[in-house]
Amino acid sequence: MADTLAMTRAPILGLESEGTFLAVTWADGRHSRFPAIWLADNRPENRKGRDGQRLIDALELPEAVTIASARATPAGIEIVFAGDARPALFDAAWLRAHALDDASRAERRAAPKLWDAALAAALPGGDYEAVAADERALARWLGHVRDFGFAVLRKVPTVPGTVCAVVALFGYVRETNYGRLFDVVSVPQPQNLAFTAIGLGNHTDNPYRDPVPQLQLLHCLEAAERGGESVVVDGFAAAQRLRETAPEDFERLARMPVPFRYVEPGRVDLRHRAPLIELDNEGGVRTVRYNNRSIAPLDIAAEEVPAFYAAYRRFGRLLHDPALTIGFRMAPGDLFIVDNRRVLHGRRGFAGGRRHLQGAYADMDSLLSTLRILEGRA
Ligand code: OGA
Ligand code: ZN
């Protein structure tokens, strides 16, 4: 059957029942097909409220689900399933929001905004006072983290522990063996070699953890007199460039597991084995890991090792390419946050004075949840 109805939020031009599918043509020309079994599982009364938890198990569905009839009514799309007397009433806007055609599915995936050195002209950022007091400013700042995997926050009080208060604006500190927060204190000519003033190459933190900390914050309490600039690079952009220029190297890094390890004798022995470039189910880059300090001896077939190093070094050069990296100097009160699965950070060597940063880890799911709630209120 075919039907026409203008609905305010998701106007429909045509509706066609194909037995095991419902075909909908929307007013903007988009065409979406909904499988009968998907509709039966998602009928509104199977859920506690519109977005609440599902009340049935898919095992309770009939073996074969077919649509006996479908029609557009002012209240929504009414579907009668074969052998089931109760009609199901679907909100057209809900169906549109969950449509399974390629364009609709692509719209629902957050697309990272890849960036290069040009982002330095306008670093994604915010001011602590505004972000802490104003939901819209907070949403903007969190939106930068989602889109760029990186944002700066200025005028953060230089009070020790404030990095945890920043995390509390959107989520929860992820405590590790380094504590709820950790101090990065460095002095020139250190007595203790742990407190060095040398530069750190671009890296992601803690690849020896599973799961890896997804967000890292670094808050500057005291800056060095000279040097000590922070560096960031978009690992997704570098991986994209590797994929375009050296697809075999990209494929190799996505395939070969790398062991990472961090040891404090008698106290900590963290290990994780994962590729430098991890792909999602659709072939997109999900996670980048790169940390020369914590990569353990490779544990792959000897014949594969030379080609791995060639690919690893090519990727490493991209991750330090001035065309892709951004350097910026943190003054006391500056903080930056990175998506540690995507954006690498490093620091240049420094001299003079005392330098003190405080860092903390957090997870992305809470940040995105907070962001969705804030955007829903706007
Ligand atoms: C770190 C780190 C950077 C810096 O502690 O993970 O990368 O600027 N520090 O000291
Ligand atoms: Zn680091």
Summarize, please.
By secondary structure, the protein is α+β, with helices and mostly antiparallel strands.
What's the arrangement of secondary structure elements?
Blueprint: E1 12-17, E2 21-26, E3 31-35, H1 36-41, E4 67-73, E5 76-81, E6 88-90, H2 92-97, H3 102-108, E7 125-127, H4 128-133, H5 135-148, E8 150-154, H6 162-168, E9 182-186, E10 200-203, E11 215-222, E12 226-227, E13 230-234, H7 235-245, H8 247-255, E14 258-264, E15 268-274, E16 277-279, E17 285-288, H9 305-319, E18 325-328, E19 335-339, E20 343-347, E21 350-351, E22 355-362, H10 364-377
Parallel strand pairs: 7-8
Antiparallel strand pairs: 1-2, 2-3, 4-5, 5-6, 8-19, 9-22, 10-20, 11-19, 11-22, 12-21, 13-18, 13-20, 14-15, 16-17
Bound molecules: N-oxalylglycine and zinc ion (ZN).
